[in-house]
Amino acid sequence: MIHAFTRYFQTKFPHHIRHIHYTVMFIALAQLLLSNGMHINKQGVIRDTAVAQFSTWAHIGFGCVFLLLIIAFTLVELRTHGFRYFYPYLWGDWRQIQSDIAQLRQRKLPDAKPQGLAACVQGLGLGAGLLVAASGAIWLGLWLTDSALAHEAKDLHKMLTGLIEAYIVGHGGLGLLHIYLSSKKHGQLDEK
Ligand code: HEM
Ligand code: HEM
């Protein structure tokens, strides 16, 4: 399956998009895992255990990298495909979305097409990634300057992380299913 995944990405994406996507994917998953070990109290003090210290500082470090990367990824994606590819509904264009939904109703997984369901979900995912990373960075700025608002920003960040979790389950899960089904169809899963 890992082989099918890397092959799909190799044929589908140019080199730079492939590597940005791998890194974004890896950091997003690492952030979700690391967040389980984090403990910062209302006064902004990190719990004095090795796990909490490591998880918090690694989460902050990865988070800052993620913020820069997701900005770059969004700009690269918009330059490659254009705004309308990801957000056609802002122009009242629902045609491809409706046709993809009709295909889903027939229990067939539609391919990712311009202005289609998968592209719209990806557009929302980029937005979710930007919001989560920006809210984390705002908390960091307030926390470092001992602001009383840091706790509020942390709650906002925690709330927004729900968006990226839902995105990873939806987009990631369907992406893996899509690769599995198309590899099976082309007999590639039996090769290795
Ligand atoms: C500059 C960037 C970031 C900073 C400074 C930051 C900081 C924080 C802080 C302080 C917490 C609260 C920890 C606690 O009190 O338990 C937190 C929680 C969390 N963060 Fe981040 N974060 C950043 C980016 C991200 C990114 C990019 C993701 C995901 C892709 C993410 C996912 C999470 C999750 C899932 C939680 C746990 C939420 C919960 O317990 O309900 N963070 N983050
Ligand atoms: C477990 C995590 C993830 C998996 C398994 C995954 C899987 C995939 C797959 C299979 C595709 C190709 C869809 C196609 O065109 O056929 C794709 C595209 C894409 N993914 Fe992800 N993804 C994950 C996480 C993320 C995250 C965290 C983001 C950003 C927040 C993201 C943003 C995108 C975007 C923008 C595209 C479209 C790229 C293009 O067509 O140029 N993905 N992903």
Automatic annotation (TrEMBL):
SUPFAM superfamilies the UniProt entry points to: Transmembrane di-heme cytochromes
Keywords per UniProt: Cell membrane, Membrane, Transmembrane, Transmembrane helix
Subcellular location: Cell membrane
Main location as per UniProt: membrane
Membrane-spanning parts: 20-37, 57-76, 116-140, 160-181
Membrane topology: Multi-pass membrane protein
Residue ranges of domain Cytochrome b561 bacterial/Ni-hydrogenase in the record: 17-181
One example GO MF annotation: electron transfer activity
GO cellular component, one term: plasma membrane
Gene Ontology terms: biological process: respiratory electron transport chain
Protein name as annotated: Cytochrome b561 bacterial/Ni-hydrogenase domain-containing protein
